[in-house]
UniProtKB/TrEMBL annotation, chain A:
Subcellular location: Cell inner membrane
Parts of the chain that traverse the membrane: 6-30, 62-85, 97-120, 140-161, 190-214, 226-250, 262-283
One GO term (biological process): amino acid transport
Protein name: Amino acid/amide ABC transporter membrane protein 1 (HAAT family)
Alphabetical list of PANTHER family matching this protein: ABC TRANSPORTER PERMEASE PROTEIN, BRANCHED-CHAIN AMINO ACID TRANSPORT SYSTEM PERMEASE PROTEIN LIVH
InterPro entries listed in its UniProt record: ABC_transp_permease, BCAA_transport_permease
Any one Pfam family match given in the protein's UniProt record, by short name: BPD_transp_2
GO molecular function: transmembrane transporter activity
Record membrane topology: Multi-pass membrane protein
Origin species: Plasticicumulans lactativorans
The entry's keywords: Amino-acid transport, Cell membrane, Membrane, Transmembrane, Transmembrane helix, Transport
TrEMBL record, chain B:
GO MF annotations, alphabetized: branched-chain amino acid transmembrane transporter activity
Bilayer-crossing regions: 32-52, 58-88, 100-126, 180-199, 229-246, 266-291, 312-331
Keyword Zinc: no
Entry keyword annotation includes Membrane: yes
Gene Ontology CC terms: plasma membrane
Name of this protein: Amino acid/amide ABC transporter membrane protein 2 (HAAT family)
Topology term for the membrane: Multi-pass membrane protein
CDD domains (UniProt xref): TM_PBP1_LivM_like
UniProtKB keywords: Cell membrane, Membrane, Transmembrane, Transmembrane helix
InterPro entries in UniProt: ABC_transp_permease, LivM-like
Compartment(s) where it occurs, according to its Swiss-Prot or TrEMBL record: Cell inner membrane
Length: 297, 354
């Protein structure tokens, strides 16, 4: 038995899963506060990674300088996107909202391909050792960093929503827009803030993945991988997003393991999460932690 | 000069439900439709293969787009997996023909029916899911079916793809653009008339009721689950027939053609054409097929002026499709069909169109 291999895969799955969790959290953040499903979440990763890559190769900036610049860019980008494209969509049917973000994802994907080309480009090396040995398992340094960053982000989110004033305003808006507005919360500001935070955090995830795999258009597939995670946890649950991300990350790696050992079907790594998604939707249509939508007539 | 018949009509006045639900409300619209068909039938005589190819594309994509419009525009469901059904129809028709020797004429509708079965199976979650959850469930089915295409060698030929024989009828092969155009033309007319008729039938009205207010619809005795799944079935039938025609036209079906991008394009077609409009489906398809061609042509024209334009035209096309979807949603959410209606209304009462 190849237990070491399985263990390695599970660890990898957990690490990638935290990244899925972070991206899923960003997705849920937008959905919860603005009721918009962002099909362009993967493109946020892509844009963030390319911008950071550009700062670091073109201007030879170190990571600690390139990353904040990227964040600033992404924050402005997120706010602008919300104002220009998403604001006119308020009150439109759900199909329109979905299609606008799908349209955005097409545009950005093509734009990034046009500017930076289709081939994966490696990040300038940041760490001295590409991989470190943790308890006998090989772990990529960038993944270790990503694990650290992910946990910090999650803790940050927790603090932000629990204790900060803006976080409270955002929760209020998510709960009841009109009531929040009547108590002096600027809903417009909350919407812009949600997009900015989501774009910045997604960009960070994009940079981390880019460091490991190189930056390429494959990054935008993350945005699609996030759906099983989000659905598993329930669309409007931040905790659910993290749990869903971890489960999907482990699931795809374990599926890969079983496939390579016994099943030999191939491609399970990509498809298994979607099978899981369909099964979850059949059993629990609102995910594990999602609130059941009760409609009044 | 006796009676009201000789006075000039200033609008349409319908006096019965029957008159209100006819497909062609005025004699003029009937004549225009007939004229359009005659004109279309003459295309192969004087248009070259390039334009015929585009028209054929508009035909088979248009059939599939109408199916999606029945699902999205009329029933209010969402599907991000339409391309997978389109592909299933293409593979299925080729398979029925190659494996069982079924004539292509029969294989095409049968492929449509089998696609319907698959579509209804995939649509089962739609009985419980709404909106976003449904969108994501259909997204999953897109990836699962895509994976199935790549894997099921007995059915699709795997990564090598499947060969499809040309359309033949009584020993006459419709194997070039001029001939195949008529096949597509007949298919489009039949499918669009059937679609328009479906929507004024009991089932069609049930679809619209489910879209407009599903709770009221349920209270009025409409079985929601049944009609939601049935809508998936109708949509898949159209997709299957469109896909089958696509396969027999190209002569070769490969799994790479039915990605999520095509699903998005189908949605783009009906949004640009107009959700909930039969004619809009065709208008939107024409827009979506012609847009990349126009861009290609202008890139060829400007290629000498702006360096590097020719190399980037693939990206520009994708961006143009995305932008077209976004701009239509922001500025003309009811699509080209709405524009067309406004134009018609303007000319109907010309010159007193205020």
């Amino acid at each position: 038995m190849n237990l070491d291999f399985l263990l390695q895969l599970v660890v990898n799955g957990l690490i990638v899963g935290t990244l899925y969790g972070v991206v899923a959290m960003c997705f849920v953040l937008i959905y919860k506060s603005t009721q918009i499903v962002n099909f362009a979440q993967g493109e946020f990763l892509l844009i963030g990674a390319w911008v950071c890559w550009w700062f670091m190769t073109e201007y030879r900036l170190p990571l600690w300088a390139g990353l904040p610049l990227t964040f600033a860019f992404m924050a402005i980008f997120g706010v602008l996107l919300q104002i220009v494209v998403l604001r006119p969509m308020i009150g439109q049917p759900i199909i329109s909202v979905i299609m606008v973000t799908i349209g955005l994802s097409m545009v950005f994907q093509a734009l990034m391909g046009w500017i930076f080309g289709v081939f994966a480009k490696p990040f300038p090396p940041v760490f001295e050792h590409a991989a470190v040995n943790v308890l006998g398992l090989q772990v990529q340094s960038a993944y270790l960093m990503s694990l650290l960053i992910s946990v910090v982000i999650m803790a940050g989110f927790y603090w932000f929503f629990k204790h900060s004033r803006i976080g409270l305003a955002m929760r209020a808006t998510a709960y009841d827009q009109q009531a929040a507005q009547s108590l002096g919360v600027s809903v417009k500001q909350v919407f812009a803030m949600a997009w900015a935070i989501s774009a910045v955090v997604s960009a960070l995830a994009g940079v981390v993945v880019g460091m490991v795999n190189g930056v390429s258009s494959a990054l935008s597939f993350f945005g699609i991988k996030v759906f099983p995670a989000v659905i598993l946890g329930g669309l409007d649950s931040i905790v659910g997003a993290i749990v869903g991300g971890l489960v999907i990350g482990v699931l795809e790696n374990v599926a890969e393991y079983f496939d390579s050992q016994w099943l030999h079907i191939g491609n399970l790594y990509t498809v298994a999460p979607f099978y899981a998604l369909v099964i979850i939707l059949m059993i629990k249509p609102y995910g594990l932690f999602g609130t059941r939508n009760i409609e009044r007539i | 000069m006796s009676g009201g018949h000789t006075t000039m009509r200033c609008g349409e006045f319908r006096t019965s439900y029957r008159a209100d639900t006819t497909i062609f409300p005025t004699p003029m619209s009937r004549r225009v439709a007939l004229g359009a068909v005659v004109l279309a039938a003459s295309f192969p005589l004087w248009l070259n293969a390039y334009y015929l190819n585009l028209l054929i594309q508009i035909g088979y994509y248009g059939i599939a787009a109408l199916g999606l419009n029945i699902l999205v525009g009329f029933t209010g469901q969402i599907s991000l997996g339409h391309a997978a059904f389109f592909g299933f129809g293409a593979f299925c028709s080729a398979w029925l023909n190659n494996r069982f020797g079924l004539p292509v004429v029969l294989a095409v509708p049968l492929a449509g029916l089998l696609t319907t079965a698959v579509g209804m199976f995939v649509g089962i979650p739609a009985g419980r899911l709404k909106g976003l959850y449904l969108a994501i469930a259909t997204l999953a089915s897109q990836f699962i079916l895509e994976d199935f295409f790549a894997r099921a060698e007995w059915f699709t030929g795997g990564s090598a793809g499947a060969l499809a024989q040309p359309f033949t009828l009584f020993g006459f092969a419709f194997n070039n653009d001029q001939r195949f155009f008529y096949v597509v033309l007949v298919a489009v007319i039949v499918m669009y008339l059937a679609g328009a008729n479906l929507l004024r039938s009991r089932d069609g009205r049930a679809y619209v009721a489910v879209r407009d207010h599903y709770l009221s619809a349920e209270i009025m005795g409409i079985n929601l689950t049944k009609y939601r799944i049935l809508a998936f079935g109708s949509a898949s039938f159209y997709a299957g027939v469109g896909g089958a025609l696509y396969g027999h036209y190209l002569g070769f079906v490969s799994a790479e053609g039915f990605t999520i991008l095509l699903s998005i394009q189908f949605l783009g077609m009906i949004i640009i054409g107009g959700l909930g409009s039969v004619m809009g489906s065709l208008l939107g398809t024409a827009f979506m097929v012609l847009l990349p061609e126009v861009m290609e042509a202008s890139a060829q024209g400007l290629g000498g002026v702006i360096p590097g334009l020719k190399d980037s035209v693939a990206y520009l096309k994708q961006m143009a499709i995305g932008l077209a979807i976004i701009l239509f949603l922001i500025f003309e959410p009811q699509g080209l069909a709405h524009r067309w209606k406004l134009t018609k209304a303007y000319w109907k009462l010309y010159p007193f169109s205020y």
